[in-house]
Amino acid sequence: MNSPSEALGPPLLGALLRAPWEAVQQHMLARVHERGFDDLDLAHLNVFQYPGPQGARPTELATRLRMSKQALNYLLGELERLGYLERRPDPDDLRSKRVALTERGTALAYAMREAVDELEDAWAQRLGPERFAELRGLLVELNELA
Amino acid sequence: MNSPSEALGPPLLGALLRAPWEAVQQHMLARVHERGFDDLDLAHLNVFQYPGPQGARPTELATRLRMSKQALNYLLGELERLGYLERRPDPDDLRSKRVALTERGTALAYAMREAVDELEDAWAQRLGPERFAELRGLLVELNELA
DNA sequence: ATCAGATGGTAAAGTGATTTGACGATACAT
DNA sequence: ATGTATCGTCAAATCACTTTACCATCTGAT
Q1: Residues with CB under 7 A from strand D
Q2: What's residue A1's pLDDT?
Q3: C-alpha span between A142 and A138 (Å, rounded)
Q4: Which bases along strand C come within 7 Å of a protein CB atom?
Q5: pLDDT, tens digit (0-9, with 9 covering 90-100), for B100-129
Q6: Residue A112 — φ and ψ, nearest 5°?
Q7: A82-115 burial, b for 16+ CB within 10 Å, e for fewer?
């Protein structure tokens, strides 16, 4: 009685959300590496996360991804060097740049999307389509709360 | 037609899982800071994540948290310096250590737990208790798949 | 009982992602 | 016009983390 583990109680919602999210991430990374985009890591994929960097300004992206504009710019530099995107001058604001995906960048976004779809399909099958739909619906609501 | 954002489609499951998980994390960090544990960041809280470091061996913890034993030991060093835990010799294995929470460490674990409960309660209320229970159940199942 | 190999923890140096601080250029509001 | 805010970037410094290398201890085979 009163063992430390008992005192901690059952798995918390945080843990329940975290594990499958990490599974998605890892699956995405592995799949994307298989497809030949093996010069990237999770930090890079993070930049491409929904809704992706296409057309965005660096500062806007940095805010969205909750990192300093310097940190993001560092990543953009690497992604540009690796041929995934370019930073082009913004015609409407001479101070500003806009991120433009290259062909390779677009292909990456597509591959990421496909990887997630794949995993979702697998889960939907094993959970049952209607229960999976229910889960998705509840998660959408949860996201609206936060 | 065929705008970049259309091509990306609706929010993916990854994003749906990530956002609320990050909300949990941020709430936990903020709450814990309020309570006076303001010398910690997310990396530290990570060590305390379910089921917590109490009684664990460093290497075991490192495996559980998917980091190198050196990286974990670095964090344990800080947490020890800040008075949250101690590394004590393991009586059963002279090579080994065991993590023992201090009073402050136990208080932190309790505060973290409380913070998550708080947020869960808020969500349960706004989602409806039975729908929240459903969400939780589905997440448990999803965790068993992965 | 001994010895080989595995495992646990740690130290030290190096790496590299990220922060801090500062800057010139442009935009915008008054 | 002029002051202030914003955009991107550079450079230096920092700090978390990796790599490499150890020694101590355990374990199992002989």
Answers
A1: A 57-60, 69-70, 73, 76, 87, 90, 93, 95-97; B 43, 67-68, 70-71, 74-75, 78, 93-95
A2: 39
A3: 6
A4: 7-12, 17-21, 24-28
A5: 999 999 999 999 999 999 999 999 999 999
A6: -65, -45
A7: bebbebeeeeeeeeebbbebeeebbebbebbbeb
